[in-house]
Amino acid sequence: MGTPESCKSEELCTELLQSRTGVTSISTESVTQTFRLRVFGVLHWVVSLGLILATDFLLKKAFAAASIEFPSALCGMFCIFSVLIILDYALPSAAVAFEKFFEPGIIFIQRWLPLFYVPYLVVLPLSLKEIPASSAIKICLIVGIGYWKSSYSYDHDVGGWLATLCVTGLAAIGVRKAVKTELLDAEPMEKPSPFSSIELCAWTEVLLISFAASLVFPTALGTRARTYLPFLLASTVLGYMIGSRLPSSLKKVFHPIIFCAASAELAAIALGFFSKSGLDAVLGYYVTNSSSNPGAGDILMGFLGSVILSFAFSMFKQRKLVKRHAAEIFTSVIISTIFSLYSTAIVGRLLALEQSLTISILPRCITVALAVSIVSFFEGANASVTAAAVVVTGLVGANFVQSTLDKLRLRDPIARGIATASSCHGLGTAALSAKEPEALPFCAIAYALNGIFGSILCSIPAFRQSLLAVIA
């Protein structure tokens, strides 16, 4: 009596329980799998980036021990690129695997690339104290900051940046017409992800907590430089994050790197005021140039060598494009590099700029990571002035490169990409690629090659002497 019904109920309950248990099991499995993937992703990122940084560190040590003046990171870049090419020829799947392994680290470097330029701008007030106002004005004229007027109500300057842009663009167009190589689609380049609200909140917390700790316990980590490091680093990173999120219309006149530098500078002023140590002292803690007592700026600049190593992967990814358009790329980049170096030397002499300052701004159109290495070949150069000249050149280009290329009627993506990277390096490249992705591969290639050719040329004693003869 009632047994069949109770049996049916039990069966239904069992099925229901099993189904629920199964769902729970699947859900738990899914969560576990997701967690494992995330942990693996983090470990992959740490290992890939760590190996790039370790390679740069070991190369620096080896070159210093051997008293080799040539930039160690540039040599490393050539080695990595050669390994990739050899693997691609012998075992293509190994080359792809090698590239994919280092991809997380490369994406990280590309995402934060402009941030690594900032420390030289932040400590610029210390360097400018020794430069007369008249010399600073001359440097601005050479770099290409003048009187502008375009669609944004400025008048075009005839300074260095515009001259380099014109020469490079016209050279590329001339070679393009001569070789008549058909333009094919480039390999897609992955864009770094935008900054999230969680990242902003996390760095804001670091900023506030470390600021309080710096004031209450200024030597909690042994030295003021190490204690101030979290606060000054957070102020720099937050400035870049917020600057990157500004409306595009505002970015045209207030580039993220300016916002970033201003944020770090204001933080240094605030810390100097409340700690009663003064701005100059805090800026001295920001960049100490000491590996045993690093500041926030030293940490950021420590990535500059890895930036150069990352060029090997960018060039490898676009190897087919480089091979197909080698004539246009190499010819225009070589012309651009030589023109930029000698025109800077000539104008510096015409304006009677001090020899040491002219030398310092010679590589104004080459990325900071290599520009600083280039001026190390010369005696009496000021690396801070070098970096500032490079960054300002990039800022001018980032703001006006597209409108200028349009006015010059340079429509070809190869010419636009090469001219942009050769005249205003990474910052101009970022500005152009945002709206013209078809020009990005040529920007990336020229961005690397321009620095490579500049480094190679300036490592040759005869070439350096010729530049010095023009300057003197």
TrEMBL record:
Top-level division of the source organism's lineage: Eukaryota
Topological relation to the membrane, as annotated: Multi-pass membrane protein
Keyword Oxidoreductase (UniProt): no
GO CC field: membrane
Principal subcellular localization: membrane
InterPro entries per the UniProt record, alphabetical: CidB/LrgB
Compartments where located: Membrane
Protein name: Plastidal glycolate/glycerate translocator 1, chloroplastic
Species this protein is from: Vigna mungo (Black gram)
Lineage of the species this protein comes from: Eukaryota, Viridiplantae, Streptophyta, Embryophyta, Tracheophyta
